[in-house]
Amino acid sequence: MPTALITGITGQDGLYLAELLLEKGYEVHGVIRGQNNPRRELVERLVPDVKLHNGDLTDLSSLMRALRDSEPDEVYNLGAVSFVAYSWENAFVTSDVTGLGVLNILEAVRLHAGSDPASIRFYQASSSEMFGKVQQVPQSEETLLWPRSPYGVSKVYGHYMTINYRESYGMHASSGILFNHESPRRGEEFVTRKVSKAVAAIKLGMQDEIVMGNLDARRDWGFAGDYVEAMWRMLQQPTADDYVISTGETHSIEELLTVAFGHVGISDWRKHVRQDPAFMRPAEVDLLIGDASKARDVLGWKPQVGFEELITMMVDADLAALKAGW
Ligand code: GDP
Predict the structure, then answer these.
(1) Which PANTHER family would you find in this protein's record (predicted)?
(2) Active site residue 127
(3) Do the beta carbons of residue 72 and residue 3 sit within 8 Å?
(4) How far apart are the first and last CA of the chain?
């Protein structure tokens, strides 16, 4: 039975990946951070077969222990401070966890693997936020990186450190440059989930308006369940490499609002939306749109869930949850 260790097990992607690997017959382990982590219960409920290890990306010895106790064939580094807006206010913590944390887990894997550094396959969650002030449209694996936030800068550090460990030590270390990916499990601070939850609450008469930032921003949004499949496929390749994972389509926040409100029968959504500079960012990324042709050609991967299906799935899930009183 192959064994996998996942950091970021409590997050959206960690949960989908754990489900996927369990379905494939893996023994799955997860690193969980902090005393009384409020998301532990969620992990234990959704994926009870995952074995949890206390650890933190900023604590090398805790990662060494998790590796010793799980003996994985594959390590997926999904742990990060992942909210761009927060990263300006907490730039140091973001750099420590999202950036230096990658060095820690790479070093732990290298030391644990001993004389055969490629014996443990490693996945790094790189991000489209690394393209920031985009130097090319659409963005591919070759596009020059120009991050626009402390989060993006930290992801660039982790990305190059992963490449560096692959080139320096012959590790089987791959990076997935994932564009935005959403689901009903997306954190409520991210715009798709913020909108799906508010639209469901407005439909049910539980709230009247939603306060938003920049409505002109555009993103290339895919479904997280599709994207974790790409992570797994990367680690099944004979050689490690970097891959862009995206849909190749972009939509604006206005389109997101139109689809979400439209799904519950509200066409004049503007009367429910107020803009507040508090939700604007010091800097925005430009037109993020991914060219995933390498993933399609090499991994045989393509997204299954389109934009409207994704947003309506999220609104339906929030409607069901609110009706159930969750
Ligand atoms: P990101 O791409 O990782 O930053 O994902 P987000 O979902 O946080 O933000 C996507 C885009 O939505 C950004 O360009 C934001 O400026 C824009 N946006 C507009 N209003 C909001 C809002 O109220 N909350 C969030 N999170 N983003 C918003």
Answers:
(1) GDP-MANNOSE 4,6 DEHYDRATASE, GDP-MANNOSE 4,6-DEHYDRATASE
(2) yes
(3) yes
(4) 36
Whether residue 50 has its Cβ less than 6 Å from ligand 1: no
Q: Report the alpha-carbon distance of residue 44 to residue 52 in Å, rounded.
A: 9
Domains of the chain in sequence order: 3-181+221-245 (3.40.50.720), 187-219+251-287+306-323 (3.90.25.10)
Task: Tell me if 88 CB under 6 Å of ligand 1.
Answer: no
Q: Is 129 a catalytic residue?
A: yes
Burial (CB count <10 Å: 0-12, 13-18, 19+), residue 114: exposed
For the chain, what's the residue count? 326
Q: Output the CA torsion sign for 10, 190, 263, 218.
A: negative
Residue nearest to atom 2 of ligand 1 (CA): 180
Encoded amino acid at 301, one letter: W
Separation CA 316–CA 309 (nearest Å): 10
Cα gap 319→284, rounded to integer Å: 31
Convert the pLDDT of each residue in 181-200 to its tens digit: 999 999 999 999 999 999 99
Give residue-wise pLDDT tens across range 20-38.
Answer: 999 999 999 999 998 899 9
- Which residues in the chain come in under a pLDDT of 70? none
Question: pTM of the full predicted structure?
Answer: 0.96
Beta bridge partners of 212: 275
- Residue 110 is classified by DSSP as H
Distance 70 CA to ligand 1 centre (A): 36
284 lines ligand 1 (CB under 6 A): yes
Distance separating alpha carbons of residues 309 and 49, to the nearest angstrom? 30
Query: Does the Cβ of 217 fall within 6 Å of ligand 1?
Result: yes
User: Using a 6 Å cutoff on CB, does residue 279 contact ligand 1?
Assistant: yes
- The β-bridge partners of 218 are 252
Cα-trace Rg, the chain: 19
Cα 162 to averaged position of ligand 1 atoms, centre (Å):
27
